[in-house]
Structures are given as structure tokens and as C-alpha cells.
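Morning F.,

Quick status update on the modeling queue. The single chain you submitted on Monday has been processed. Sequence for confirmation:
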Amino acid sequence: MPYTLLSSWIEREKKRAAEDIWRVEEDLYYKVLVIPDLDKELKIKANASDYTIREVLSMKCEDENWRPVAFILKSLNGTERNYKIHDKEILAVIRYLKTQRHFSKGRGK
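C-alpha cells below.
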């Protein structure tokens, strides 16, 4: 009896993992990074939650859609988790500017 329970549990987990992989592949298909063209319009979007911050640099493409050029996903340490939400978003922008400043340096616009 325990073997059958284990076996059915393994099959359910394999199916669930396959579905998760499909979702990730599908997500990546729609969120492929584009090669940056620094003559085009760029924008930074920062999001924060209780445990992570995310920054995305996007570029306006020929079809007038915004496509991601670079992104950062970072876990917050214990002290940073106590920040208020607007402070976490400011932290996200500051971290982004420190690590990805080469995209905006010298643009002159």
C-alpha cells in the first residue's frame, strides 16, 4: 500500500513539474530580451514585494511596444524587509542604477 501511494504521488509531481516547465518556457517566449539600441527611448520599472525587488529596463521598439532589455531580481535581507514599500522601490531603482548604469551613461538626452 505505501508503495502505491508513493508511486501515485511521484506521478502527480512529475505531471505538475512538466506543467511548470511549460509555463516557464511559454513565459520566456513572450519575454525574450532584445538587443539594446541606446538611441531609442528607454524606461526603468521597479517593483517591490515583502521579500524581493525587481527592476526591468525596457526599450520602445519599432512596433511601439516596450520590450525588456535587462532585468534584475534580488532578494531582500532581513533589514531591507522592514523597509516601507516606497523605500523598497527606491532601493530597487538605486540598485538598478548602480549595476546597469552603462545603459544610461552618456546618452545626453
